[in-house]
Amino acid sequence: MRQFRFDPRGIRFLLYPEPRIRADFDAPRLVRANARPGSVAPGPAGRRMYVIDALNKDPYRDPATGDYLWRPPYPRHKPRVDSVRPNARGHFDSVVPGTREFSSAAVFASVAAVLQVWEHYLGRRVRWSIPGRQRRLELIPRVSKLGDNAWSGDGYVEFGFAGRRPSQPYCENFDVVAHEVGHQILKRVIGRAPEGRREFEHRSHEEAGADLVSLVGELHFDRVVTRVLEQTKGKLFSVNLLSQIGEYRRGRSGRRAARLAFHDKTLADVARARKDGDKHTYAQPFLGAAFDILVEIYEDHLVRRGLISGDLARRSTRTSGARNPAIRREFAKRFRLNPDGFAEVLREATADFAGLLALAWRKTRRTGASFSRVAANMLAADATLNRGRYRQLIGRAFRRRRIVPRLRRP
Ligand SMILES: [Zn+2]
Fold first, then answer.
1. Is 180 within 8 Å of 151 (Cβ atoms)?
2. How far is the CA of 88 from the centre of ligand 1 (A)?
3. Ligand 1 centroid to 66 CA: how many Å?
4. Residues 266, 279: Cα–Cα separation, whole Å
5. Could you give the C-alpha distances from 100 to 29, 75, 217, 336, in angstroms and in order?
């Protein structure tokens, strides 16, 4: 699958490609929106979305129940901070990190980046699915009354603060923004959840899918690719920056932790979550399987490029992942010889993985979004895109999670 690259002629923005919530988060980085300099108005406001830095805003939905209290657009007479203006050349990268202007510009840039990446793999424009007359997505970067939360709903996305701390706006965490945009994209591509017995699994899949939208988005920043590989020495079956992105959840202990894509959970382990209606926990086996598929595609590319041996790839499995120091050392040795080659391979694997997901999700519109059906759709997508090159590894990854790829219930 052809890789996506940002258009070097697009409008310049700054954003934090790595979760800013991490202690070792990196400096902000340049990103390009695919629009002509000068074509994005103060706000920022473009043709498909606009930012409003509302002041003292009540959330559109009740953070406890999710019920709508009111709806966008945010009325003109309500209080807000002045729009962020582009610089004289039409770019937005002169904003200063740590200011409200930075939040506004970064949230716009993050949404634009996710959208560009996914439209490339989907092979089509994504129009927001917004009921009513509104056409553009409204982005509200700072809603303190939302608390420790980020929400996406009909025609809007809005963000609270990690730990309710003013210094930790969620809107500056690319992965959180991408997750919320992921919900919007999936609603458009797959459709809204049906009512009845299929609703829960559809919503669970959407949570996993939103994390995958985010993961793929993140991997389109060269800086993230470099850092992940340096951190893991090329061995991605481990707990790392990639396996921890998405939406942050407070655990039972009350401590906040990113959802983890690297784990052993099967559907049997999360049966309880289904009874409790906990869609995030129930999504874990699907997310874990998808993460394994990405890593195995990456290792497959490494072998084909001669960067690691087939024998090392066979021994490197999810279970030997973080625990086997010998395998880690072997990876580190190979990685040191050609770090740029590993980075290229990770970008290629990401493109193949994103292509599979995109086509599988398009097929899911017809089949419905149970885990089994999406898994079957990934196999079908692989047959179309790669003549079944990844058939075995995809089937294996899902079956390990007790997800059986099939289109019809027996
Ligand atoms: Zn979500």
1. yes
2. 37
3. 12
4. 14
5. 17, 20, 24, 41
Residue 289 CA to chain centroid, in angstroms?
A: 15
Fold of 11-189: Elastase; domain 1 (3.10.170)
Question: For residue 176, how far is its CA from the centre of ligand 1 (angstroms)?
Answer: 9
- Asked, as a colleague might, if the bond just before 44 is cis with ω within 30 of 0, I would say yes
Instruction: Provide the pLDDT confidence category of residue 247 given band limits of 50, 70 and 90.
Output: low
Over residues 319-348, the pLDDT tens digits come to 666 678 889 999 999 999 999 999 999 999
**Chain region(s) in the chain for CATH 3.10.170:** 11-189
**CA distance readout (Å), 21 to 146, 156, 170, 176, 238:** 18, 23, 8, 10, 20
Q: What digits encode the pLDDT tens for the residues 13-31?
A: 999 998 887 777 778 999 9
Q: Is the bond leading into 73 cis (omega within 30 degrees of zero)?
A: yes
| Ligand 1: centre distance to CA 246 (Å) | 8
* Residue 25 CA to ligand 1 centre (angstroms): 23
The answer to pTM > 0.85 is yes
Residue 384: CB atoms within 10 Å: 12
DSSP state of 41: B
